[in-house]
Design a protein that fits this description.
Blueprint lengths: L9 H21 L1 E2 L1 H4 L13 E3 L6 H12 L7 E3 L7 H13 L5 E3 L6 H12 L7 E3 L6 H14 L5 E3 L7 H11 L8 E3 L6 H11 L8 E4 L6 H12 L7 E6 L2 E5 L13
Parallel strand pairs: 1-2, 2-3, 3-4, 4-5, 5-6, 6-7, 7-8, 8-9
Antiparallel strand pairs: 9-10
Helix pairs in contact: 3-4, 4-5, 5-6, 6-7, 7-8, 8-9
């Protein structure tokens, strides 16, 4: 005989429906991990099925970054690591750089407000040159300086998959900005968003980016706010923007009336693939 169907009361049906509706959210929450979910008593990291690791302000330092890097190198699940404001220096950055060179799944790495310095930036750059998975790299306020910028420029010349690089207030002057612009010249793939806000690149940097704009296809957003560019430099940027190879294009820079968004060709040439 066939089994008798189980009759569910109203409360049970409501509970069943609620669990059905919440199951995607619960599954998502299980894959979003924090420090207590992954750090073991011996300090090592067990990443399990984590897809996002959120460690903002956890102060893991170089020691924690090195242990995380060891777990990250062969990981096949984790897609985002947020290490913002964690006291990570050059040693931790070098370990993370070696990890991203091997990892093909990690898409986003946030290292903002860590004292990497030039040596730490060089460590990240060494990994970036070989990375095939990373798409977004945030290095704001890491004291990379011109040396770090030059190393990252070399990495960008070899890397064709990174889509966004954020380097606000990194102590980069015209020399470092010029190195990055030269590395991106003539590219048909790779970086789409570059943020250099708050770096005193001046007109030397403006001149380099003005020369870059007509030659680079993928770059579509360039943030140069508060970079010490004069009226002459702004004129150069506008001329480069007018000839920009990417359609549409957005460049942000200081104007006489304050922060100004320049969106040349936006309406005229449409918003397809707009940043």
């Amino acid at each position: 005989p066939l089994p008798t169907p189980i009759k569910m009361g109203g409360a049970a049906r409501c509970l069943s429906l609620a669990l059905l509706l919440l199951s995607p959210l619960l599954a998502s929450a299980q894959h979003r991990c924090r420090l207590g979910d992954v750090r073991q008593p011996d300090g090592s990291f067990q990443l399990g099925s984590c897809e996002e690791l959120l460690l903002f302000g956890e102060s893991v330092g170089d020691g924690g970054a090195i242990k995380l890097a060891a777990a990250l190198a062969g990981n096949t699940k984790l897609q985002l690591v947020d290490l913002w404001h964690n006291g990570v220096g050059a040693a931790g950055a070098k370990a993370l750089g070696a990890a991203i060179a091997k990892n093909t799944v990690l898409k986003r790495l946030y290292l903002n407000e860590n004292p990497l310095g030039a040596e730490g930036a060089k460590g990240i750059a060494a990994g970036l040159a070989k990375a095939r998975g990373l798409r977004h790299l945030w290095l704001t306020r890491t004291n990379a300086g011109d040396e770090g910028a030059a190393a990252l420029a070399t990495a960008l010349a070899a890397n064709h998959v990174l889509e966004a690089l954020d380097m606000w207030e990194c102590g980069i002057s015209g020399a470092g900005a010029e190195a990055i612009a030269v590395a991106l010249k003539g590219r048909h793939d790779g970086l789409r968003t570059l943020e250099l806000r708050g770096n005193a690149m001046g007109d030397r940097g403006a001149r380099a980016f003005a020369a870059l704009l007509p030659t680079n296809k993928p770059l579509s957003t360039l943030d140069l706010l508060n970079t010490g560019v004069s009226a002459e430099g702004r004129a150069l940027l506008r001329e480069g923007l007018r000839k920009a190879a990417s359609l549409p294009y957005m460049v942000l820079f200081e104007d006489a009336i304050g922060p100004h968004q320049q969106r040349t060709s936006w309406e005229e040439k449409g918003q397809k693939n707009a940043p």
